[in-house]
Specification:
The complex is a heterodimer. By secondary structure, chain A is α+β, with helices and mostly antiparallel strands. Helices cover 51% and strands 13% of the residues of chain A. Chain B has seven helices and three strands, in the order H-E-E-H-H-H-H-E-H-H. Chain B is elongated, with a radius of gyration of 19 Å. Classes of the chains: A alpha+beta, B mainly alpha.
């Protein structure tokens, strides 16, 4: 015995914005009577938009990690820093908790987001039932952790503007930082454009 | 229920509490941008930077998109969130509706993930640790006010969940 019904089978829609329940009408653009947001049974083109964003992010993930995010020029030395070498230098300075934080936020989280979103997209596209609860939880986790990847971008921004002491030390931004920022933004947009309800459309009570 | 996400959360916080948190967040945001975040001392020369200064630094090196990203997520979105909430909540308290209230609140809900003060604080911490190997670092006034802003913003978010807002609208500011 099921304890819930699907809105679309009984002619009801939920406004994804204010959560008001709306009677479904035969119109392609119904507006929510309470807040005026557009109400959809399922968000149109959610799957293709999300897939496009995930693919672009995946393509940029490679240069984001391979290209230097900054270039440090001091009196004694010159060095290019990628995200990974930044993590290693934090370890060398003995601050391994921060190194772990940066490693997780900048390398693990974006990669996991790409894999997770890819898996969710494929399973919706193939209409594969099962694990809907786990998939839903995974999606909410992706949505929640996404913004923390911006951490490195902020650190770079501060380093670049502070370390500008001519002839002693200067730091230049690298192309990797641009790619990295783009990965974070694209994966966040991908999570926003994904209609979570799609995960439940092929679900049957077990 | 089926997917075990929280359906909605309301709380006993009144609209006055929300307005109070928004007002304090606004003051802290202005303070955070008026004073330098950190200063760096190296061989007698001192260099300080503000939040906007950090964005300008990126812009000057030809990375306008990254500069815009930093500026939008740490300054513009929080500013828009706070002032937008004040704009709809203050009239709502007097049982009036601000023009464009529904559209504005929808925009605020969409923008919520893009306000990244707490992420910025951790990023600043990472930068400071990296710098301390190189030179003497002096934390500025706005580093502390930015930390307080982070707390005020999360308090503000927790007293104004979407569902709560629409109840205030339906119930005329109660």
């Amino acid at each position: 015995m099921s304890t819930y019904v699907m809105g679309r089978t009984v002619g009801l829609l939920v406004c994804t914005h204010c959560h008001a329940t709306v009677r479904a009408i035969q119109s392609s653009h119904a507006l929510c009577p309470r807040c005026g947001a557009r109400v959809h049974e399922r968000r149109p083109h959610s799957l293709s938009a999300t897939a496009a964003l995930v693919l672009s992010a995946a393509a940029l993930y490679v240069p984001a990690n391979l290209l230097p995010v900054m270039h440090m020029h001091t009196f004694f030395s010159e060095e290019d820093d990628t995200i990974m070498s930044g993590v290693l230098s934090l370890i060398q300075e003995g601050s391994w908790p921060l190194a772990l934080l940066v490693f997780v936020a900048s390398i693990v989280v974006p990669l996991l987001k790409l894999i997770a979103m890819g898996w969710l997209l494929i399973s919706v596209a193939r209409r594969s039932p099962g694990h809907a609860l786990q998939k839903s939880r995974l999606f909410r986790l992706v949505e929640f952790v996404g913004r923390w990847s911006m951490l490195d971008v902020y650190a770079i921004a501060l380093l670049v503007s502070l370390v500008q002491i001519r002839s002693l030390a200067t730091i230049q931004v690298g192309l990797g930082a641009l790619c990295f920022g783009a990965v974070v933004v694209l994966t966040m947009l991908a999570a926003q454009s994904f209609d979570e309800r799609l995960l439940w459309d092929t679900h049957s009570d077990d | 229920m089926r997917c075990r996400a929280e359906l909605y959360r309301t709380n006993s916080a009144s609209i006055d509490t929300a307005i109070a948190w928004a007002a304090s967040a606004l003051v802290l945001l202005l303070l955070s941008n008026a004073y330098p975040l950190v200063a760096l001392q190296l061989n007698g020369s001192v260099r300080a930077t503000t939040l906007v200064g950090a964005a300008i630094g990126l812009y000057n090196q030809g990375y306008a998109p990254v500069a815009a990203l930093v500026l939008v997520t740490t300054l513009l979105v929080p500013l828009f969130q706070i002032s937008g909430l004040l704009y709809v909540l203050v009239p709502l308290r007097a049982n009036r509706r601000a023009p464009g209230q529904n559209e504005l609140f929808r925009a605020l809900t969409h923008l919520r993930p893009w306000a990244m003060s707490e992420v910025f604080m951790l990023g600043a911490l990472v930068a400071l640790v990296k710098l301390s190997a190189l030179a003497e670092v002096i934390p500025g006034v706005s580093l502390f006010s930015y930390g307080a802003l982070m707390l005020a913003l999360s308090a503000l978010t927790s007293v104004t969940p979407t569902e709560q807002f629409w109840r205030w609208v339906d119930g005329g500011g109660q």
